[in-house]
């Protein structure tokens, strides 16, 4: 039984019937492959000496039936393997894509080509190499038949099989590591090219095109050199195996002739010996020829296993009551992707449902990392983030996703229509038209509805990856609408006004007021703090540490008092207290640096 938590094991177990039947058909095929040999043997030993035309006709009819059956079985075997490949794709492609989306960004460089490796694995499962592996166990059958002709012929076939197997083992030993290194180098080169193509506009604008072309050519040359080295090593063994098999086939004919001269075998056995020895050795040669693909398939299997190990076992938490937005961050620390330093240190604060928080601080203070941790995008090294008292990992993923609206620092849209992007692609899961009302509501709330209607196809306008087809400001409004879709009780905005014009910022401020009236908990990271005019609380971060936290006006007063006391200008970006309305704010204590 396969491990229920192992997607690869489950998929292979589901295909087990296909492989078992393919192996069974291989058994019948190898028995039928004896038909031409027996036909030749009977023609030379029975038909020719007796001039038996009727016997020849009967033997020919039997041969034709055997060959037609052989062709049918071979077709069925191939179709079984193709079906197994399709079943693997159906059962594993989804879990692989899901696992890729769960892998932390730090470990994603290697996994971006896992699907390409998976396709290599599937194709190998239907290729010549696997068919040869199915035929390989039947090589002893042909050696036994050779023994029935004469022990010397069987000995020649056995020695030949041992020699070819030895060369194949040397080939595997000598080429496995070079092929592995060549594949890894090629995959890294492809990954680098993909990343550069994704930023081709920036590359061209900064005059980096020729430099990047040269860099990628250098990577390709390094990869090509490793591939050539691996190919040269394999070619030597492959050529030797081909030459040895041809030599053994000819030697079998010569040995048969010698035995026939001595009267130890018949004339028919002379030609049958050559065919049998060739058939006994052919699977070994085919396996060696397909060895590179077999090694790649094995490496692909390991890559898939590593991917699912990185993802870890999937938890299925209990469905909880829909949250109202109460947030608690408890002693949160976040490490760098390399794990060599802490980006955030001991962050702790609470927000009641419906409260709003502004986060400010100099560049590199960890503001974006903090909101990513609150949204569950980056894991915490210690501490926890709790929504309505439950840690984020204790919420079912889909339920938590519906409860959080997140706007990243850079607008991030996907290929598809504007409606699909705003609806978080829930259009893939629900009947057409079900989400239209909610999509329009979210777009109106953030002021995106009017400009969407002016586009050629309105909400059905197709976007490219990254929102190609929209201006940066328009893309940011679509991102805001996506965050507001479904009326989540917790809204996290990372510099939501960075690309908005004055009108867009006014519409955003009005939307935030409406959300506050609806008791939505709001967290806003901002450099332009005009958007923080109505927040309840303010947090000041520096070097990953929470230096101040409390009522907005009280924190601003402390920020302005610190540099004044030192005779310096405030060093927080755009955080002069006159940039924010100094109206009344709820009285919250200030939390100083610990």
TrEMBL record:
Task: Return the Low complexity bias intervals.
Answer: 567-587
Q: Which residues, by range, are in coiled-coil regions?
A: none
Q: Which UniProt keywords apply?
A: ATP-binding, Membrane, Nucleotide-binding, Transmembrane, Transmembrane helix
Gene3D superfamilies under this entry? ABC transporter type 1, transmembrane domain (1.20.1560.10), P-loop containing nucleotide triphosphate hydrolases (3.40.50.300)
One Pfam family of this chain: ABC_tran
Q: Which topology term describes how it sits in the membrane? A: Multi-pass membrane protein
Q: For this UniProt entry, which segments traverse the membrane? A: 20-41, 53-73, 141-167, 187-208, 251-277
**PROSITE patterns given in the database record:** ABC_TM1F (PS50929), ABC_TRANSPORTER_1 (PS00211), ABC_TRANSPORTER_2 (PS50893)
SMART domains referenced in this protein's UniProt entry, alphabetically: AAA
Task: Kindly provide the name given to this protein in its UniProt entry.
Answer: Type I secretion system permease/ATPase
Please tell me the species this chain comes from.
Sphingomonas natans
Upper lineage ranks? Bacteria, Pseudomonadati, Pseudomonadota, Alphaproteobacteria, Sphingomonadales
């Amino acid at each position: 039984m396969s491990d229920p938590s192992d997607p690869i094991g489950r998929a292979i177990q589901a295909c087990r019937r296909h492989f078992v039947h393919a192996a069974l058909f291989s058994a019948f095929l190898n028995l039928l492959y004896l038909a031409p040999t027996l036909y030749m043997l009977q023609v030379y030993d029975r038909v020719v000496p007796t001039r038996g035309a009727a016997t020849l006709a009967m033997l020919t009819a039997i041969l034709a039936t055997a060959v037609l059956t052989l062709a049918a079985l071979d077709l069925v075997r191939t179709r079984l393997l193709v079906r197994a490949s399709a079943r693997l794709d159906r059962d594993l492609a989804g879990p692989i894509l899901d696992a890729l989306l769960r892998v932390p960004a730090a470990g994603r460089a290697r996994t971006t080509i896992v699907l390409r490796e998976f396709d290599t694995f599937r194709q190998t499962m239907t290729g010549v190499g696997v068919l040869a592996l199915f035929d390989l166990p039947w090589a002893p059958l042909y050696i036994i038949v050779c023994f029935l002709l004469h022990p010397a012929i069987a000995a020649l076939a056995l020695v030949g099989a041992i020699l070819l197997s030895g060369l194949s083992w040397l080939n595997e030993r000598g080429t496995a590591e070079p092929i592995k290194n060549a594949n890894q180098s090629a995959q890294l080169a492809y990954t680098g090219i993909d990343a550069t193509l994704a930023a081709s506009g920036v590359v061209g604008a900064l005059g980096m095109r020729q430099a990047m072309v040269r860099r990628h050519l250098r990577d390709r040359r390094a990869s090509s050199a490793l591939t050539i080295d691996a190919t040269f090593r394999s070619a030597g063994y492959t050529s030797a195996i081909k030459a040895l098999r041809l030599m053994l086939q000819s030697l079998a004919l010569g040995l048969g002739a010698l035995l026939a001269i001595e009267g130890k075998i018949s004339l028919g056995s002379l030609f049958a010996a050559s065919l049998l020895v060739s058939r006994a050795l052919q699977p070994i040669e085919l396996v060696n020829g397909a060895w590179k693909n077999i090694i790649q398939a094995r490496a692909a299997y390991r890559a898939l296993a590593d991917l699912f190990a990185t993802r870890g076992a999937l938890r299925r938490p209990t469905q909880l009551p829909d949250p109202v937005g109460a947030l608690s961050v408890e002693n949160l620390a976040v490490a760098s992707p390399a794990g060599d330093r802490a980006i955030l240190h001991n962050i702790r604060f609470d927000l009641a449902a419906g409260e709003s928080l502004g986060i400010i601080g100099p560049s590199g203070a960890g503001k974006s990392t903090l909101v990513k941790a609150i949204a569950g995008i980056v894991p915490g090294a210690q501490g926890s983030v709790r929504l309505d008292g439950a840690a984020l990992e204790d919420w079912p993923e889909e339920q938590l996703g519906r409860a959080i609206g997140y706007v990243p620092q850079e607008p991030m849209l996907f290929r598809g229509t504007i409606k699909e992007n705003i609806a978080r692609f829930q259009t893939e899961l629900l009947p057409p038209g079900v989400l239209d009302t909610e999509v329009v509501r979210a777009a109106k709330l953030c002021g995106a509805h009017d400009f969407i209607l002016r586009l050629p196809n309105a909400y059905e306008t197709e976007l490219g990856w990254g929102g190609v087809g929209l201006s940066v400001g328009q893309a940011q409004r679509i991102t805001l609408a996506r965050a507001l879709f479904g009326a989540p009780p917790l809204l996290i905005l990372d510099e939501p006004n960075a690309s908005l014009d004055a009108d867009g910022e006014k519409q955003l401020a009005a939307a935030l007021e409406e959300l506050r009236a609806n008791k939505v908990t709001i967290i806003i990271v901002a450099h332009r703090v005009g958007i923080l005019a109505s927040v309840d609380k303010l947090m000041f971060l520096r070097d990953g540490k929470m230096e101040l936290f409390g009522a907005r006006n009280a924190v601003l007063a402390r920020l302005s008092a610190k540099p004044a006391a030192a005779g310096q200008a405030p060093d927080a970006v755009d955080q002069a207290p006159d940039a924010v309305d100094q109206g009344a704010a709820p009285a919250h204590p200030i939390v100083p640096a610990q």
